[in-house]
Write a structure and sequence with these properties.
The complex is a heterodimer of chains A (about 775) and B (about 400). In chain A, about 40% of the residues lie in helices and about 25% in strands. By secondary structure, chain A is an alpha/beta fold. Chain A starts with a helix and ends in a 14-residue tail after the last helix. Chain B has 15 helices and seven strands. The C terminus of chain B is likely disordered. The chains are: A alpha/beta (about 775), B alpha/beta (about 400). The interface between A and B is large, with 51 and 43 residues.
């Protein structure tokens, strides 16, 4: 066994922390995961000697059991989903069967889909290593929005492996499929990595996209096998099968070895015990990171926002600059969206190669970008979901060395809950992902695209569950709108446009602001940022932190999508305050039930960056406020309003609650509903928004709003109306059965618990009286749903 | 939004109901009944496909004098003029060709075969009829066919697994742009036809409306508008043939061209075809004040290494005004051919001092050239300070010596 010097160092440092009473007393849980040996298998016999040689040169003489299992299944043409942690050699699980098959069959092709462009580039580099190093005659081509026109034809014609993303497949490849005949008719494998990111509405789009892809591939005689990969989620196989609508074999026994792993839950010390104020996450993260970094231990810090990423990185840099001066070779980088692609590539490379010792990042590094092996992961504040916490904590992990994750709690109720209930984190399986491919809005959009791509036969199906009658009804609806025509036994596209152009797979705004440095007559682009983030970080007079420099924003030109900045030397940074607001435009349906009044409405959801705080570097004391004058971000969408109307049971239940508790109560009810709806509406938590108002200016009643976050709405509000009974019953069951004491993130959110008051019990009783218990009223008062 | 919501809601309710009742199969809806009657010389050729053959007199074609776009020994009967009308203008797999025409020259007349798809299910048959007109040896003459019609046909043939293609293309849009880009409002076929050939169409239908007209025709409405599309299509093909004749006769009838911009375009085309008459035409355009005529000449003399003529044409261009390419070429000529660094520097300064708008990359290039020249002038390869300057003057010295 090789002895690594860092092994001693990290263990020593951990020992040190353990025996440091000041540190130890803040750790609420110190959990050790035993080291696990690897499970190996011999290289499969049918792998060509050439590939064996490449593997040997990379030090691979046998496979981990999951790689071998994936190879066997994929070669037998079974669809598989591989679920193993980061750094377990997941990419080889698909690269090996694909490359071997492509070597055997000279015409065979494979399509790789990644959710982002950054990940495709990473994969291209990885494949090049495998293919080029061995001189294998396989052309690997990236085909995305950045591919120059001149390279597109050769990618289509001669690319044996084409790496792309869903958006490009949707708007570039499928609508022009005759150009891809060679590729599609020989398509043997489709690789979909980061499957866990295709959840909620995005996942629903993805399934429909795969339906279209399969339909066109079949037309040209292609019959692809799917290899999917996912991070740990609650239901990977279910999600994989929902996405490709075929049987999928689950491979989730990790054969890669892992070293001993420490999990530390750290609660920053109280500064003001009376008010419960604790030391801030930013400074604590810096201090803890430094303790590892000083020992040259490779560390990653995850911050909860772009601003905090820059702050933590700059504090760490300042600290080591004082200590080590010039001769210390420690390098610390920040990493987030908004940097230029080549800057990001350089940081990733520095991490892999070892020249970067610590990186402070947003969730941008949470996805599978290869940054090599790291020893310590520090979470400066807890991410919203268990799977995200696991992903970030899992970024540190070595195959044969000790690693550690330090989870630092912020003052937020959910962080405080987690840090004091570590069993909740370790005992809970990660969230499940839900999708609803037959969501009528999503489906209609893709049906249009499908008809455009190929006329639709009467006897054709689209997806697994959709009946012929339903399909024909939908096509009939499109015919009335004049976009398709039925003739003989088919439906033909008769619209003049290009439907894929009007359908976006993602709800986020694709427009980017270019950041231009104007210091000393320069005119240099230093980065790019999406419009909503630019409004929060690049408003006029904002202090903008970008890697090693500090700038002041001179102008944000939203018309031309440019932000002009200039270098500065200020002693404060700025943090903007976002105000959100929801306005009802038109109610088009309203019904009084015995429990509440429900309304469906078009609403306008606005968020505005209206003010900013100036905060002193280091101490974070507030130096004053400034105004921001920027247009609001707004989306028109659909909402359901649940109102405590006069005479409803919701109203009387509310009135039974002490007046001073009511506001908090309905806010907890909102959280509870939000925790339940994804399962029923088959979406993600972030696909819906919720707003609770004890005195709503529009209805003049206590009201809970549940709105669709996709512009225009995709039926989630209507879905709530249909499933109201089951959703509220499930909410009651959830709060009743949740093992927590007074509320936790999975039920009503962390709530107070004093001898006089238990918030969880209050919410439980409220839901029961308002929505669950049926009054034995006179007959005829029975509610009808439709 | 709410309206769509309501409609879809209803659909969904139906779905749920159907599901509950376990009803899955129903007969597909009937297609609309239509009874389309061919007009004019059209006659049904197969289900959903009509066909017509026409012969049109076209004397111009018989008197093609000079080669401009065609090879000198081009057999006129091997030319096929073609044009398609389509259901959409943006391309992609959902765009269909519904009207296709192919015309060839036979004994002084234009023999034209056209096919009309009267409803989508006939497309396979429609394409098989068309494929009879496709041959790898013929030259297919079109207007914007290279990037649109030809590509679209290729897609349609692939989808219906019908063999064929038209690899040899002569697209008149490109030469038309060379001549009339600055003279006409646009280089659409209709504009060129009106402005150059003097044809005025009555009751023509704007191209953008054609897809809509076709949709209503297929539904059995709007007969008349479709007949206008039909006439429009014939006219387009006739114009193609006449336009080719116009181009081919131009070199000896330059008097047909009134604007110097047209002469500049013609001259460039001639030089491209290797026709020495191009020089003369370009000189005439230049003398009539068209600066764009200078560039093809300049490139021509550079290519043929005729430095004497190159210099004179550069002087002519620069007399008319400041031009980036001409200045750079002049400076190169002065520096490398004549060793006159001072004059070269002066020329460069014309550009820098003239307040000309330059792109950053051009500005960098020209400033670099200036520094190099200034260094050469100052040191003249002897006095050198600083190692950087040393290597740069050495390399430029060796170049001058060579």
């Amino acid at each position: 066994m090789i002895i690594y010097p860092a092994m001693d160092t990290l263990e020593k440092t951990l020992k040190h922390l353990e025996t440091d009473p000041a540190f130890r007393s803040q750790v609420t849980c110190w959990y050790r995961e035993e080291a696990r040996p690897g499970i190996y298998e011999e290289l499969p016999e049918d792998i060509s000697p050439k590939i064996k040689e490449v593997l040997k040169n990379r030090g691979i003489e046998r496979l981990y059991s999951h790689q071998a299992a994936a190879y066997g299944s994929a070669r037998r043409r079974e669809n598989i989903v591989v679920v193993t942690p980061t750094a377990s050699g997941k990419t080889l699980s698909y690269n090996l069967p694909v490359v071997q098959t492509l070597m055997e069959r000279k015409e065979a092709r494979a399509l790789y889909l990644f959710p982002t462009k950054a990940l495709s580039q990473d994969q291209q580099a990885e494949l090049n290593e495998l293919v080029l190093a061995g001189g294998l005659p396989l052309k690997v081509a990236t085909y995305d929005g950045d591919t120059p026109k001149s390279l597109r034809i050769s990618a289509r014609e001669t690319g044996r492996i084409v790496i792309s993303n869903p958006d490009m497949l949707h708007a570039g490849v499928l609508p022009n499929h005759p150009k891809w005949i060679k590729f599609l008719s020989n398509l043997e494998y489709i690789i979909i990595d980061e499957v866990h990111s295709y959840r909620g509405i995005f996942g629903s789009h993805m399934t429909n996209l795969i339906r279209r892809l399969k339909r066109i591939a079949e037309f040209y005689g292609g019959d692809p096998t799917f290899i999917l990969c996912s991070a740990t989620i609650g239901n990977p196989r279910e999600l994989a099968e929902a996405l490709i609508e075929e049987e999928v074999k689950l491979i989730d026994v990790n054969g890669a070895p892992s070293g001993e792993k420490h999990f530390l839950m750290y609660n920053p010390p109280l500064v003001d015990p009376v008010q419960g104020i604790r030391r801030g996450v930013v400074l604590e993260a810096k201090n803890i990171a430094l303790r590892f970094l000083k020992q040259r231990i490779k560390t990653i810090v995850f911050a909860r926002s772009r601003l905090r990423t820059e702050l933590i990185a700059s504090y760490i840099k300042k600290a080591i600059a004082n200590m080590y001066n010039e001769n210390s070779k420690l390098r610390v980088e920040s990493y987030r969206g908004g940097y230029l692609p080549n800057e990001r590539r350089a940081i990733e490379k520095g991490l892999r190669g070892g020249s970067v010792h610590a990186v402070v990042s947003t969730t941008a590094l949470e996805l599978g970008i290869d940054v090599g092996e790291l020893d310590v992961s520090i979470l400066a504040g807890m991410p919203a979901s268990i799977s995200s916490i696991r992903q970030q904590a899992g970024r540190a992990g070595r195959r044969n060395r000790v690693s550690a994750a330090v989870l630092i709690a912020s003052a937020s109720p959910s962080d405080q809950f987690l840090v004091n209930h570590w069993d909740y984190f370790f005992g809970r399986s990660p969230e499940s992902a839900w999708i609803n491919p037959d969501n009528i809005y999503v489906l209609m959009d893709h049906l249009k695209c499908a008809v455009f791509e190929l006329p639709f036969r009467d006897d054709e199906s689209f997806g697994k569950d959709l009946g012929r009658q339903e399909l024909i009804e939908m096509l009939g609806f499109l015919e009335e709108a004049g976009t398709v025509r039925h003739s003989a036994d088919r439906w033909y596209w008769t619209g003049t446009g290009y439907p894929a152009e009007e359908v976006s797979l993602r709800t986020t705004n694709p427009r980017n602001v270019v950041i231009i440095d104007r210091s000393r007559g320069k005119n240099e682009v230093i980065g790019e940022m999406d419009v909503p983030s630019a409004k929060e970080l690049l408003f006029p007079n904002a202090v903008y932190l970008h890697r090693d420099s500090q700038y002041v924003c001179l102008e944000l030109d939203l018309q031309n999508l440019k932000a002009y900045i200039e270098e500065s030397q200020l002693n404060y940074y700025t943090d903007s305050v976002v105000k959100s607001d929801l306005k009802v435009l038109e109610v088009d349906w309203s019904r009084d039930f015995s429990d509440s009044r429900l309304m469906l409405a078009d609403v306008l959801v606005r968020s505005q960056v209206a003010k900013f705080k100036k905060l002193k570097f280091g101490t974070h004391e507030n130096l004053g406020y400034g105004d921001i004058h920027l247009p609001e971000e707004e989306i028109h969408t659909r909402a359901v309003l649940i109102c405590a109307a006069e005479g409803s049971r919701m109203r009387s239940a509310l009135e039974k609650t002490p007046a001073e508790l009511r506001e908090r109560l309905i806010s907890h009810v909102g959280t509870l509903v939000l925790n339940v709806v994804p399962v029923f509406l088959l979406c993600e938590r972030h696909d819906v928004g919720i707003a609770e108002r004890i005195r709503d200016p529009f209805t003049r009643l206590p009201t809970i709003y549940l709105y669709d976050k996709a512009p225009g709405g995709i039926g989630l509000a209507e879905g709530f109306v249909q499933k109201k009974e089951s959703i509220l019953h499930a909410a009651y069951e959830l709060v009743r059965q949740c093992p927590c004491e007074a509320g936790c993130p999975s039920c009503i959110g962390p709530g107070e618990s004093t001898p006089e008051l238990n918030m969880k019990a209050e919410v439980r009783d409220f839901i029961r009286t308002a929505f669950v218990e049926k009054e034995r009223g006179p007959a005829g008062e029975e509610e009808d749903e439709e | 939004m709410a309206k769509l919501g309501a409609r879809l809601q209803q659909l969904r309710a139906m779905r749920e109901q159907n599901r509950a009742e376990g009803r899955q199969e129903t007969s597909p809806r009937r297609s609309h009944s239509r009874d389309l009657q061919p007009w004019g010389s059209w006659e049904p050729a197969a289900e959903f496909v009509w066909q017509t053959k026409e012969r049109l007199p076209l004397p111009e074609l018989s008197e093609l004098r000079d080669g401009l776009l065609l090879e000198p020994n081009q057999n006129l009967e091997e030319l096929v003029f073609y044009d398609f009308e389509t259901t959409g203008l943006s391309g992609g797999a959902g765009t269909v060709i519904f009207l296709a025409g192919f015309a060839s020259y036979r004994a002084g007349e234009l023999e034209m075969s056209r096919y009309l798809l009267t409803d989508y299910p006939g497309e396979g048959e429609f394409l098989r009829r068309i494929s009879g007109h496709l041959s790898p040896s013929k030259t297919y003459v079109s207007y914007n066919g290279k990037s649109f019609d030809q590509k679209l046909l290729q897609s349609r043939l692939i989808i219906h697994a019908v063999p064929g293609g038209m690899p040899r293309q002569l697209d008149l849009l490109y030469p038309a742009r060379r001549l009339w880009r600055d003279v006409l409002d646009s280089c659409s076929l209709q504009q060129v036809e009106r402005g150059v050939l003097g044809v005025v169409r009555s009751e023509d239908i704007p191209g953008a409306l054609i897809p809509q007209v076709y949709q209503s025709f297929v539904r059995g409405e709007e007969y008349g508008a479709m007949q206008r599309v039909d006439r429009h299509h014939v006219q387009d093909i006739v114009t193609l043939a006449r336009l080719l004749a116009f181009f081919e006769n131009l070199p000896s009838r330059t008097e047909l061209l009134g604007y110097p911009q047209e002469l500049a375009g013609l001259g460039a085309l001639l030089l491209r075809a290797g026709d020495p008459r191009g020089e003369e035409v370009l000189h005439e355009a230049l003398s009539r004040g068209e600066p764009r005529a200078g560039r093809p000449l300049l490139l021509h003399y550079k290519r043929t290494r005729d430095y004497r003529r190159l210099e004179s044409v550069l002087r002519e261009i620069l007399e008319a005004g400041v031009d980036y390419l001409a200045i750079v070429e002049m400076a190169k000529l002065l520096e490398h051919r004549q060793g006159d660094y001072a004059a070269a520097l002066e020329t460069i300064d014309l550009l820098l001092e003239g307040g000309t708008e330059l792109s950053p990359s051009r500005r960098r290039a020209i400033e670099h050239r200036r520094r190099r020249l200034a260094g050469k002038l100052k040191g003249d390869c002897k006095t050198v300070d600083g190692s950087q300057l040393l290597s740069s003057s050495f390399s430029s010295c060796s170049r001058t010596i060579r």
